[in-house]
Structure formats: structure tokens, C-alpha cells
Amino acid sequence: DGVEKLLTDYIEAADYASPFNFAKAVVTPVHVPSSTKEKSSGGGRSGATEAPSPSATQQKKEATMYGEMLNEIPELAGIGKLFSSSTAVDLTESEAEYVVSCIKHVFEDHIVFHFTIKNTMEEQQLENVNVELDLSDASGASLESSVPAEVIKFEQPGMAFVSVRRDSPMQNMSISGCKLTFTMKEVDPSTGEVYPDGEEEEYPLDDLEVSLSDYVRALPLPDFRAAWEAMTPDNDLTQVFRLDKYKSISDAVTAISDALGMEACENSNVVSGAARAHRLLLSGVLVGEQAALVRADLRTSPSNAVEMKLAIRSQSQEISDSILEVVSG
Description:
The protein is an alpha+beta fold and 329 residues long. Helix content is 20%, strand content 39%. It has six helices and 19 strands. Strands 3, 4, 5, 6, 8 and 10 form a six-stranded antiparallel beta sheet that branches. Strands 14, 15, 16, 17, 18 and 19 form a six-stranded antiparallel beta sheet that branches. The two termini are 36 Å apart.
């Protein structure tokens, strides 16, 4: 298959200056004759080459777009190649005076918090708009730079950025005390005239969380079983869980997939309504370009409790431990 071919080529080249890139190898298309295609327990086809999923394709497009945008900002241009970007998280209510959302852009040893700020007050103009973050509870994280939005007019969103350096590759962060600081100037709505005198203002925002899923990029696999067998079992972890907080297998599948931020392979995120057993197959690449695979066998017990046997296979013990910690939580 694709993994074996690239691994063979790597060995034959005998150039060991760089480690074998398993994360790249597992997405190499695998040719399987149609007669050998088999249905998997997750509902997809084992051994069939699949097109990249919408989530993975979207991630790739966004990485290109955001990477180009961030590279054009002088304060952010030197922090390296963008690894992944999260979906936007709301930090205010949608009816607030100032509506703020945040995208987390992950780099090798930085996170750039990208804030979009909308001013809904017709009689106000905001200037020198900064976002301040309290990093006192985020051990190992330090502020590196802050880029304000110069002017935010009524109904014309602006962007501000905060770059944070982190000490560990997959560092969880809980950031409280987030707030906007800005100069507020009054505007005459009838003429659009901005009065010169301004007042210094602050506006509180919701807390920010950074977790394992922020460090994961979806990894579409043409053949989950082949990828599993090709990866060394040195960092394997297995554990059995009783998932009392989930009412159904479908609920558990959704929650686990969301918490890990990985790609559901072979349509294994789709659960039949009548299913009393299901296998979830997840794959992802974590920051540092290290691959991880997760196989979760779920069933409904005679007492209707959801039970799960979780198997993790990854390229480092730290990644396996981190995945188990998220699921255990």
C-alpha cells in the first residue's frame, strides 16, 4: 500500500537526516481492486481509496488563506508555518454592544488569537482596539505581541491579534480576564462626523480555552486498517470505559469526535438508530506532524449503559497519554 511504498523508498534512499513522515505517508492513495473491497463495521469501505472529507478539504483551504493573511502582518510574520486554525468561538452574546469572536491559529510553538470585533453602536467609533489576555493561569505561556484594530466603525468589523508563545507542544490553557480596551469616540449618525475627544473604555469578554482538539488537524485515510498496522505499537494505550453521561452510542460518538477534533474514517461517525454496537475510527495529525489513530468499540450493555473499549496508536507516548486524558475527562 501507500505507506509501505513510501517506507520502502525511505529505507532504500538511506537518508536518515529527517525522520520518516508517517503523517504524510498514510494519506498516499492506496489502490485496491474492487473485488477486495469489504464493508467495515463503521459502515464505510475498508481498503477503498476515499476522497478527502469536506472537513479536511476546508481545513486545507483555511490554512492557506489564514497563513497568507497572518504572514502579511509584520508582528506575526516570523513565527513559522501555520499548522491549523480552529472554528470561530463567540466571546460575547450576539446582541451585545460589541460582538467578539475568536479563531485560534496554531503554530509550532505559538498560538495566535485572531479576534473579530463588530461595533453595533451607531453613535460610536472605536479606535486603537486591543484584546488583553490574563495568562497568569496559563503556565508556560507568555505574551509575545499584540496587534490592535486601528478603527472600528458602526457595522464594519475589525480584527485584532494576540500572539502567545507556549513552552510545550500541546499545552492546555485556560485564559480568564479577557477584555477589550479601546478609545471610544462619539459619532453624529446624521452626518457621520466623529467628535475628536474620546474616552478610554474596557469591555469584558468570555474566557478562552485551548485544548487538545486545537492542536489536531484532520487526517483523511484511504485505509484505516492498513495505517493502523503500519504504525508501530510502541505507544499503544487501551482502556475500557462505562460512559454513564451519554444516553446513546450516537451521543458518545459525537462527543468523542468533537473532543478530539480528529477525522472520522469510513463514515464511522454515522450510527444507526437501532445499533447496539458500533466501531468509531478516528485519525489526525497533531502539531509536530505526528499521526494518531483511535479505535473505539462501543456497545449498549443489558442495563442500557454505553460501554467503550478505546485503543490509541500514535507516534509518541505524550500524544497517546493526551488523547486518553481527554477521553477520560
